[in-house]
Write a structure and sequence with these properties.
57% of the residues lie in helices and 9% in strands. By secondary structure, the protein is mainly α. Helix 1 packs across helix 3, helix 1 crosses helix 5 and helix 2 packs across helix 3.
């Protein structure tokens, strides 16, 4: 079975943390460099994951202020259909 690209794994990990409450609204995410070290990848890979999550409205990045979980991120994941889709994606990675 082929592995998903690492940026998708990073994004999915953060999505799951938001969905299950490990990351709450307003929680600060690690810097791109810290995440790159944690995941043993290039900073650009983490940046791509962060950009994907920002496009989905789950996180907000501001220069000098860092990256945080968006205020409505949990609400966006709580519709039954959305939640089922996220759980299905997570199970696919496992």
């Amino acid at each position: 079975m082929d592995r998903a690209p690492i940026f998708q794994e990073i994004a999915e990990s953060i999505r799951q943390d938001i969905l299950y409450g490990a990351l709450e609204s307003g929680a600060e995410l690690p810097t791109v460099r810290e995440m790159a070290k944690k995941w043993s990848c290039a900073p650009g890979t983490v940046l791509r994951a962060y950009q994907e999550l920002a496009e989905q409205g789950l996180i907000v990045s501001r220069p000098g202020a860092g990256t945080r979980v968006a205020a409505g991120a949990l609400a966006a994941t709580q519709t039954p259909l959305r939640r089922a889709a996220l759980v299905n994606q997570a199970e696919g990675f496992l």
